[in-house]
Amino acid sequence: MKVAIIGGGPAGLYAAILLKKQRPSAEITVYERNRADDTFGFGVVFSDATLDNFEKHDLPSYRRITQEFAYWDDIAVHFRGTVHRVGGNGFCGCSRRKLLLILQERARELGVNLRFEVDIDDESRFADADLILLADGINSRFREKHVDHFQPDIDVRTNMFAWMGSTKPLDAFTFIFQETEWGPFIAHAYQYEAGHSTWIFETDPETFERAGLKGLNESQSAARMAEIFGWFLDGHQLLTNRSMWRNFPMIRSKRWVKDNMVLLGDAKASAHFSIGSGTKLAMEDAIALADAMRAAPNIKAALELYEHGRREEVEKTQHAADVSLVWFEHVDRFWDFDPVQFAFGVMTRSKAITYDNLKLRAPDFVAEVDKSFARRVRDSGFDVDADRPLVPLFQPFRLREMEIANRAVMSPMCMYSAKEGVPTDFHLVHYGSRAIGGAGLIFSEMTCVSRDARITPGCAGLWNDEQEAAWRRIVDFVHANSAAKICLQLGHAGRKGATKLMWDGMDRPLEEGGWEVFSASPLPYFPDSQVPRELDRAGMNAVRDAFVAAAERGERCGFDMLELHCAHGYLLASFISPLTNTRTDEYGGPLANRLRFPLEVFEALRAVWPSHKPMSVRISATDWAEGGINGDDAVEVARAFGEAGVDLVDVSTGQTVRDGQPIYGRMFQTPFSDQVRNEARVATMCVGNITTADQANTILAAGRADLVALGRPHLVDPFFTMKAAAWYGADETFCPPQYLPGKDQIFRNSVRDRQDLEELRIKAKPKTRAELKAEATKPLAAE
């Protein structure tokens, strides 16, 4: 077999090593346009898990690499005169040049041909090769040459960054957040060998311009950074090596394989430096390709196996990197945070690390986080213990005069089980059991304000006396048997009305028994959906009045809170999104016009809803579709409702148009809640694939939301919140007297279960290489 590898970086060299080990008789040649000892950048960083992978696949190179590493266990966050150190992370740094020389040496030992200072721009010279690996880096000429086939998506990010080095020794992965007269600068720094550390400087484009960095050469830029971070550099110089300021390109490729050619490393996909995964991804690509070559019967099948098997892991890493880079791009959102909360946000920014995970690694730091959170709650007027605080999820919260005992919320979820809009015994059990289960606040499903406002024939309503009586029965039960507060969510389906029950075909039009539907514009949801009638002024008045009448009924029912549904493509949302509003009158066009009618409805509700009771609004913070609402628009929407008197913004996303492309994942909508809360300066509730109390604590402690709504966890476990309270020792959580023996038992058992699980996790966690190195160098005790 003959293999040509274009690019002598970590991806190309490691692939050569692994393939040559598999097939000693293969002719494998690596072509690199630079000299053998040329390298750009300074150090690379790997986690212990990545090194475990290297150890498994090629022990000789692993041993040489680890002999050269600088190890550290801590992450240090410097912010506003404070330093927070968080241990248990297990990172290792190595000189990029040393890494390349080690891989070159190992490749030669195995018989790989290495050819340097050879510039390849045409794959036709390898017509006799069985396999061609394209590992020519982030600016891959082959990816661009075959752009129509590989179809790369290149997202050039806004922040400016420059990669430099220093002689400053470091004993932790160090983040420095520095305020200057021009704006914030960030340093990401780590030691990679004795006397040398990598420094990546980052700032937003406006600060970059104000600081006069545009047009400076390398040495001038280094001098400016030395001025800004000189207090920390302590006289150590900054080093440059092609250290020019640039923007980071996030690269995704639709295809990785063309004929017998395959993209590896940054050529196919990049991951932002803030999670330190570029070289890791490149070398793990080589591992995945070698594994596929071993498992498949031929090269074509191997390349298919590589692409399909590897893509999910790469995309997961890229998603974490995306979330992380956005956090750094918008660090000014958090600049007024308490320093310990800020540091917690740094640690949990990519969602890879959570509250519980961090508590095992750094219990003292998380104890500080809890105390800081409790102090802010106490400052808001609650008499809470800030010395021995409860976890964030079980801290109280106030909206106007409504106080809730904890921040766990049962999300509004349509049950599609009403009879002509009347809630049934099913609803009584559904809402009653979740309230007894301990949630601080429960939401009704979207309750329709008129018969023609329903999504389906099974939707609940509040337009007649029978419905009002049924809802009053539910609210009375909740108040009599729990400490939960209950919110009424009112909505109008708009163009998504007259559709089948969810389990019969979600959003599919009824085949018979339908009703006329309305929207901002006459655009059907599906091509075969009913074309909605464009709402005129008389129709708007009728809709507004129906909302007001339903709110008045809701007050008579005794609901504690009212929410207006302006999300998910329903009627009011259809006015807000430009994808569903093509009007040319005063209710169409710019966002301010598109908001006019939803705000009219909200203001009418606020006028009749008691002033001491709070109101919220549910919004779709993005349509997940080109040309639709985005996060910046959501901030403006939230501000507008805030000025109209809203107390809470319930931040959801999507479901506006059928061809939206949501990016799912754990807590996938939380970044939008984060943006709305910290830019619009309004209280928010987040929702969306939040499944554990651990995740809820993470979101709250990091300041990304004020309340956390959980949907599906409450569907299968009415006592989700009570179980979480037992787990975290929140023993003041209300429980009806009939259930107290069960509460006592789960609280007793949870203490032991939590201790057992934490001990098991600690025992199962392998020691980091920093810990192993410390043990190996520890002097023996005197006998």
UniProtKB/TrEMBL annotation:
Protein name: Salicylyl-CoA 5-hydroxylase
NCBIfam families linked to this entry: PRK08255.1 (NF006101)
PANTHER family listed in its UniProt record: BLR3436 PROTEIN, NADPH DEHYDROGENASE C23G7.10C-RELATED
Residue stretches making up the NADH:flavin oxidoreductase/NADH oxidase N-terminal domain: 393-725
GO MF annotations, alphabetized: FAD binding; FMN binding; NADP binding; NADPH dehydrogenase activity
Limits of the FAD-binding domain: 2-316
Phylogenetic lineage: Bacteria, Pseudomonadati, Pseudomonadota, Alphaproteobacteria, Hyphomicrobiales
InterPro entries named among the record's database cross-references: Aldolase_TIM (IPR013785), FAD-bd (IPR002938), FAD/NAD-bd_sf (IPR036188), OxRdtase_FMN_N (IPR001155), YqjM-like (IPR044152)
